[in-house]
Each structure stands twice: as structure tokens, then as C-alpha cells.
Write a structure and sequence with these properties.
The chain is of the alpha+beta class and 138 residues long. It contains 6 helices and 5 strands; from the N terminus they run H-H-E-E-H-E-H-E-H-H-E. The protein has a 5-stranded antiparallel β-sheet with strand order 4-2-1-3-5. The chain has 2 domains: 33 residues, no CATH class; 103 residues, no CATH class. The protein is globular, with a radius of gyration of 17 Å.
Length: 138
Amino acid sequence: MRSDQLARNRSAQTPTTEAEVLRWAVGFATQLDKRVVWWFSFHDPDELPENSFVGVTIVDGTEFADLNDSDEWLLLLDRLRALRANPGGETQCFLLSDEELAVIPERFLERLLNREEVDEILKLGDLDHLMLRPRRDC
């Protein structure tokens, strides 16, 4: 995480009362304990749905989770570019639940996955719903 962004975020959230300090500390500790991982799905809008798959990238965004939404997105997009894991096309994304993440091996994180690798993930824990789940455009 960039130190200037972390400092900006921290100063914007600086607690002033004892109760705010306690709430902030508990929330911060809880947030650090939880892993935040995003599923980015890429599709070619010019293809028929059955042929539109371009790839999936599963990105760990835990280090950005304490930032505001716009900073988090900018850093996630930077991460995708740095990984060379954004093939273009339409993008949809969502957070993975702890249960979904628990069955996905680390070797599938932080890189562009092809159809065969995604199919392998989907079979690991009966995760077919990952490709069917309503997603938000990113």
C-alpha cells in the first residue's frame, strides 16, 4: 500500500473520543484479520455468450480494504495492470466469500486464468455459481 494513501485514509478517519478510538481499533483489527479477495471476470461483448469468455483474475485486495472505495478500485486496477491480468473486454467483479476462497488454491490467485483453470476451480468445491452469480460491472 502506498504510504501517502494510507496516511490520507488514516487522517480522514482519526477518532477523537475514547469510544471512537475503541470502535476504530476493533474495526481495524477485524478488518486486518479478514482477507478481501476479488473475482474479476472478463468477456468479449462482440461474441455470443457461449464464446465470450476471455479470462478470470482473482486478486487479493486485503491491503487496500481500509481505503475508501475509489482509492481501493484504483489500486485494484493498478494491480491488474501490473500483473498483466486484464485482457480487456467487459469486466464484472465481486468479492469472494470466506467459504469460496477456502477452496481456491493460492496458485490460482494474482494471474489471468484460462477457461480450463476456471473450470478446475469451479469443480473444487461445487463452485459453478461463481460464473452464474449476478455481478456488478467494474
